[in-house]
């Protein structure tokens, strides 16, 4: 907004969003937005559109569902997929441990059936980062960005 002294009013100078991926939840849960693709929404590896018919109509807001459910009872195996170069998802349903190492965070995530994903919570100074943020719910509002972070997503071994 810009103040117009003569008229005594505020006028719109610029407005957003800058691109489609700035719309919150555009690609839904476990979807990833990418403005350089003709089809901006895609599913994280190991996930597929929750409603293929809606996706064909370019409505991805329903998000993605796991291709293979995680089996927590009976020693079901899980692994980690690294989604590189992203803006991390919203932090609803997450916790931060500033003192944890990234490796320790990965071990804790694999040991906790409720853990969906994790990432470094402090990436200042380059390197792999320090601290840990873990998600225990759906991943929403993830997008590819220049200089983005690595997000480690928990998947069934068969999806790796």
From TrEMBL:
Limits of the Apple domain: 72-156
The keyword NADP appears for this protein: no
What GO biological process, any one, is recorded here? Answer: recognition of pollen
Give the matching InterPro entries. Pan_app, S_locus_glycoprot_dom
What keywords appear on the UniProt entry? Disulfide bond, Signal
**A matching Pfam family:** PAN_2
What PROSITE patterns does this protein map onto? PAN
Asked if the keyword Disulfide bond belongs to this entry, the reply reads: yes
- Protein's recorded name: Apple domain-containing protein
